[in-house]
From TrEMBL:
GO terms for molecular function: methyltransferase activity. It comes from Fimbriiglobus ruber. One of its GO terms (biological process) is methylation. Coiled coil: none annotated. This is SAM-dependent methyltransferase.
Length: 239
């Protein structure tokens, strides 16, 4: 389902320096985490959270520090990224409440259903619409009926004047060097499935969720939350 091998990609870009590389975007990340905390605030005191494409663990750690009885399963195909996630969890004193799975969601052993899941800047790398829908359906199948999903991706109508204007602002925020501007523009058209927000919302819903609610936009990043559809829960097979 992926456009490239995550293991090779993050070995190449040095997972150990990933957070430092994107530190300039930390305020945007923190705003998203703050709102996810609010979305998930009514979950049980001992909720179980699935973090799909956990990366270096930023959202896992933010949630674990805010909700000290929650337990987490981090799913990440890149071993170097998962190693950083584990180390950060240990440094923050939350690792005892975490399980770390190297691989994709389809290789995660069967377990009790989760209360909620996160998927932040992950599905945008799944280029085929059918595969992207299947990705969300796999998450839905792991959730309790009515369980929450918080998902974010780059999204915009790439054929609109608004996209080209916002992309200029986005490149300034990222402080992209002039020689890499065209490279990044091309990548957004080739390696990242940047779709109009309405289409991303439709894909999430098609994956077994109620109508997603857009709750955050920071530049090109859009974030939705949605609950597992009761109809999907009634027909899904156990995982």
């Amino acid at each position: 389902m992926q456009s490239q091998n995550p293991q090779a990609f993050f070995d190449q870009t040095r997972a150990a320096t990933y957070d430092r590389q994107w530190a300039k975007l930390a305020p945007l990340r923190d705003a998203l985490h703050l709102l996810i905390n609010a979305v998930f605030a009514d979950l049980p005191a001992e909720a179980r959270i699935l973090c799909v494409g956990a990366g270096t663990g930023s959202e896992l750690i933010a949630l674990a520090q805010s909700f000290p009885q929650w337990r987490f399963t981090a799913v990440e195909p890149s071993a170097p990224m998962l190693d950083v996630c584990r180390r950060r969890a240990e440094e923050c004193g939350v690792a005892a409440r975490c399980e770390f799975h190297e691989g994709y969601l389809d290789s995660l052993p069967p377990a009790d259903a989760f209360d909620a899941a996160t998927s932040l800047l992950v599905s945008q790398f799944i280029l085929a619409r059918e595969a992207r829908t299947a990705f969300f359906r796999a998450i839905s199948a792991r959730l309790k009926p009515g369980g929450y999903l918080a998902s974010s991706d780059l999204a915009s109508d790439r054929n609109s004047p608004a996209y080209h204007s916002l992309l200029e602002v986005w490149l300034r925020v990222m402080e992209v060097s002039p020689e890499k501007v065209e490279q990044l523009r091309a990548a957004y058209g080739r390696d990242v499935a940047v779709l109009p927000p309405a289409e991303v919302s439709e894909i999430i819903a098609s994956g077994g969720f109620e109508a997603p609610i857009l709750f955050c936009q920071t530049g090109l990043i859009h974030a939705w939350y949605a609950r597992r559809s009761p109809a999907d829960a009634a027909t899904a097979r156990p995982v």
